[in-house]
Specification:
This protein has 263 residues and is an alpha/beta fold. It has helices spanning 41-48, 72-76, 84-89, 96-102, 116-128, 144-156, 174-188, 227-230, 233-240, and strands at 3-12, 15-25, 31-35, 56-61, 64-65, 79-82, 162-166, 195-200, 212-217, 220-226, 244-249, 252-257. The chain starts with a strand and ends in a 6-residue tail after the last strand. The chain binds adenosine-5'-triphosphate (ATP). GO terms for molecular function: ATP binding; ATP hydrolysis activity; ATPase-coupled transmembrane transporter activity.
């Protein structure tokens, strides 16, 4: 089991931000975490990363039960996490190769001399993520899409069993988004692939590899299960509260709003 949440709730400043969440993430599954702005996605990720603890309920991540042991540091080393806040913390004068290498030490800059084995792994990951051609370029000179792929390679350096991608395609144009998604698909096809949780509020980013989806609404699990059942016209019309249509084409969903006929 990768993660298990049982009746988990989270209270902040007197408000319930997450309520009664039940969620099981099993090894071999890849999940979409889908929710609108303010639905509690970031708060849920903070729980998974042990940056916050449930106010009520029980949870375990990678076999570590929250509350039993002080697990935060031990847990975070085993989770690859790519978010926009990480994006801002990277030393911009480091080149792409150095940024990836730093992932082996869970550090932001590079303070240790990497072994040949670590250098080889970094080079392989740059290749897998399609970043090899700009390995020597300074991070600050890379486009947003190139940066995201470098950060994913960095997150994979420690060989994490769980990779969390928090809205990785935000701000990317169509081609950059597709290049990023293709890289993610390539990682997932490897024999030692981590379980991936991909957070998004864009239906179009859902790749066939994401077999499971959790729909989060107003801090509660609206529904969760097989992606094909979650991302359907009926389910999403109910979720959004307006009539929408989902069209699956080439194993990818497209969302549009159904215009009501005017009288
Ligand atoms: N420390 C806090 N105190 C009070 N309210 C909070 C706190 N942190 C988050 N919230 C509220 O909880 C709700 C969920 O926030 P969260 O950031 O988890 O949502 P999100 O789904 O990640 O949103 P977005 O997609 O916009 O980033 C929001 O209404 C937010 O204002």
């Amino acid at each position: 089991m990768i993660a298990e949440l049982k009746n988990v709730s989270l209270k902040r400043d007197g408000n319930w931000i997450l309520q009664d969440l039940n969620w099981q993430v099993e090894k071999g599954q890849n999940w979409i975490l889908f929710g609108l702005n303010g639905s509690g996605k970031t708060s849920l990720l903070n729980l998974l990363n042990a940056y916050a603890f449930p106010t009520t309920g029980t949870m375990s991540v990678l076999g570590m039960e929250f509350g039993r042991t002080y697990l935060a540091e031990k847990l975070r080393i085993q989770i690859g996490y790519v978010s926009s806040s990480l994006q801002q913390k990277i030393e911009s004068s480091d080149n792409a190769f150095e940024v990836v290498l730093s992932g082996a030490y869970a550090s932001i800059g590079l303070y240790e001399t990497p072994t040949d084995e670590i250098r080889e792994r970094a080079a392989q990951l740059l290749y897998d993520l399609g970043c090899f051609d700009y390995a020597n370029r300074r991070y600050e000179t890379l486009s947003l899409g190139e940066r995201q792929r470098v950060l994913i390679a960095r997150a994979l350096m420690a060989d994490p069993p769980l990779l969390i991608l928090d809205e990785p395609a935000n701000g990317l144009d169509f081609l950059a988004r597709e290049a990023l998604l293709e890289s993610i698909e390539r990682i997932s096809n490897k024999p030692d692939a981590p379980t991936i949780i991909f957070v998004t509020h864009h239906i179009e980013e859902i790749l066939p590899m994401f077999d499971k989806t959790l729909l989060l609404k107003e801090g509660k699990v609206f529904a969760s299960g097989d992606t094909i059942r979650m991302i359907s016209s009926d389910r999403l019309s109910e979720f959004f509260g307006i009539p929408v249509s989902v069209l699956w084409e080439n194993d990818r969903p497209l969302l549009s709003r159904i215009q009501m006929a005017s009288k």
